[in-house]
Specification:
Elements: H1 2-29, H2 34-37, H3 46-59, E1 63-70, E2 76-82, E3 94-100, H4 107-120, E4 132-137, H5 142-147, H6 168-180, E5 184-191, H7 196-201, E6 203-205, E7 209-212, H8 221-241, E8 246-248, E9 260-261, H9 270-275, E10 280-287, H10 297-317, H11 319-335, E11 341-349, E12 355-361, E13 367-372, E14 375-376, E15 378-386, E16 390-394, H12 398-406, E17 411-413, E18 420-423, E19 425-435, E20 438-447, E21 459-463, H13 469-476, E22 498-499, E23 503-507
Parallel strand pairs: 3-4, 3-5, 5-10, 7-8, 9-14
Antiparallel strand pairs: 1-2, 2-4, 6-12, 7-10, 11-15, 12-13, 16-21, 16-23, 17-21, 18-23, 19-20, 19-22
The protein binds zinc ion (ZN).
């Protein structure tokens, strides 16, 4: 009898222990999301974000928090490093980087990223990290986020700063990328469909999530083709199957008032700056709140999370193929192919296709499909240059040398061994050219015929045989519509009737 009673007591105790420990177990695996703690009534502050991710770090062996830099107001920028082993150690794995909230008023990117971090720690998602080392930067612009403003505390648009890297936030992200050379990147944003122009038009965009790849024609064709034909259909369907409406990233419009295109081909944003290094690179945009950033935040965060999670599942399934096309593309950049054509002026053009775009009617309140005639899905080259062996930056152009150092480019002091020819451009006059609705400088640059000799150690030599080789050409050619000279900080490079200070080193 006593024995049975003890047995029963033990059973009950075990049951009670299981009952008590179960919720504790769940809690210890998954700290509560700040957004949920706040009842979805208040956005996650920088302080709450910091506490939450440190809690994740302390409670899971799968994730470690790394500081990758700081903001203008000296807030830390964090990366959550998910790996089943040591991050970046196993070269058979694929490295993925997702970064969110470069624009401080696009809050669902950050909230979705935090939700993703929480979700990934569930045991059923652990398999992903057998093949993937995943770095997640949930908040690129903490200063902007705290003020709910687009720009950083210097008033700079971070997503136009990835070429010149003058801001601590973009500098930190690229230094972090350079350290691991991620094969896949996704830049997470929001779009706002509520402008007056669209209201007048009577319809607005209404997709929960849009996704776009790279369009700069200097990015590996294989990567662009695989992105458009394989990844995009997968991820758009993945989102639809989970009840989030989705569409390819299509800025522009309203239809027939302004043309509709895909991604910019500029390389100063989050996706193209990595794309130009032959990364499998994308933008994801969720729909912003209508009246304020908190509106509908739960669903917006879930949509963003679902897009990021779908991407990880896709990368898991196609790891070898993605690694192959990225490795091939990067090998070509690092080898450097002098004489290869590099497109430095382009435009968006039609290809005869019409776009059927899903829109919400302001009149009926119903979803409709509108056919767009002025749809320009193709980026066409207007002007090519032959890739030089490298460029010479005169020693007195310290701002350009500092830029190259910020981009972690390989710079050496130049000694003329007579192997190469040095070429200089005379800027005859400076016209302008339309670039996606903006006006940028279009100089008439004539290669001068007379031979140039450079004394030893007077110039820095910047080889184009490196991962950022195509970016270097786009940055330093005087006629490049994406070049350094189009930024106020470097406008002094272009003066009419003078020679362009950056010299080209070409094969004899
Ligand atoms: Zn944005």
């Amino acid at each position: 009898m006593i024995y049975n009673e003890i047995q029963n007591l033990l059973k009950t105790t075990t049951a009670i222990l299981i009952f008590i420990s179960f919720p504790l177990f769940v809690f210890s695996q998954n700290p509560m999301l700040p957004l949920e703690k706040n009842g979805y009534q208040k956005l996650t502050s920088y302080a709450e974000l910091t506490t939450f991710i440190k809690e994740l770090d302390s409670k899971s062996d799968l994730v470690k928090v790394e500081k990758i830099g700081h903001s203008v107001e000296w807030r830390d920028l964090y990366a959550l490093m998910f790996s089943a082993t040591e991050f970046g150690r196993d070269s058979s794995k694929i490295k993925v980087l997702v970064f969110a909230q470069q624009h401080g008023n696009e809050q669902s990117g950050k909230e979705g990223a935090l939700l993703l971090a929480q979700t990934l720690l569930k045991p059923e998602n652990r398999y992903l990290f057998d093949k993937i080392d995943f770095a997640l930067v949930p908040q690129m612009n903490p200063d902007g986020s705290e003020a709910n403003k687009r720009r950083n505390a210097n008033g700079m648009d971070l997503n136009r700063n990835h070429l010149i890297l003058t801001e601590p936030e973009t500098f930190a992200l690229h230094a972090f990328f350079d350290k691991y050379l991620f094969e896949v990147t996704v830049d997470v944003h929001e779009y706002s469909p509520y402008s007056e122009a669209w209201k007048k038009y009577g319809y607005r965009k209404n997709s929960d999530i849009t996704i776009g790849g790279t369009t700069n024609v200097n990015v590996s064709k294989t990567i662009r083709k695989f992105s458009d034909e394989n990844y995009l259909p997968y991820i758009l369907k993945y989102l639809n199957d989970r009840n989030f409406s989705s569409f390819e990233y299509c800025p522009g419009g309203p239809p027939e008032i302004d043309y509709i295109r895909h991604s910019t081909f500029d390389i100063n944003d989050g996706r193209q700056s990595f794309g130009i290094q032959n990364t499998f690179s994308f933008i994801q945009e969720g729909m912003n709140g209508k009246d304020d950033s908190i509106e509908n935040i739960r669903r917006r965060a879930e949509g963003q999370m679902t897009g990021m999670r779908g991407m990880l599942e896709y990368v898991y399934l196609h790891k070898d193929k993605i690694k192959e096309i990225v490795t091939d593309g990067r090998k070509k950049l690092i080898a450097g192919i002098p004489g290869e054509e590099i497109s430095i002026q382009s435009e968006h053009v039609r290809n005869g296709k019409k776009l059927n775009i899903p829109l919400l009617s302001y009149f009926s309140g119903k979803d409709s499909v509108v056919t767009v005639n002025d749809y320009r899905p193709v980026v066409k080259t207007l002007y090519n240059v032959k890739k030089p062996v490298g460029y010479l930056i005169p020693g007195d152009r310290q701002e350009v040398a500092a830029w190259a150092a910020n981009q972690s480019l390989k710079l050496t002091l130049f000694k003329d061994t007579g192997v190469y020819k040095i070429e200089s451009y005379l800027i005859n006059r400076v016209d302008s050219i339309d670039f996606e609705g903006d006006i940028v400088a279009n100089p008439e640059a004539v290669a001068m015929k007379f031979p140039i000799t450079i004394k030893d150690n007077q110039c820095y030599f910047l080889s184009t045989a490196q991962l950022k080789g195509n970016m270097i050409v786009l940055a330093l050619e005087p006629k490049s519509m994406l070049g350094l000279a189009t930024y106020p900080k470097f406008a002094g490079l272009l003066n009419g009737w003078e020679s362009f200070p950056i010299l080209r080193v070409i094969e004899k």
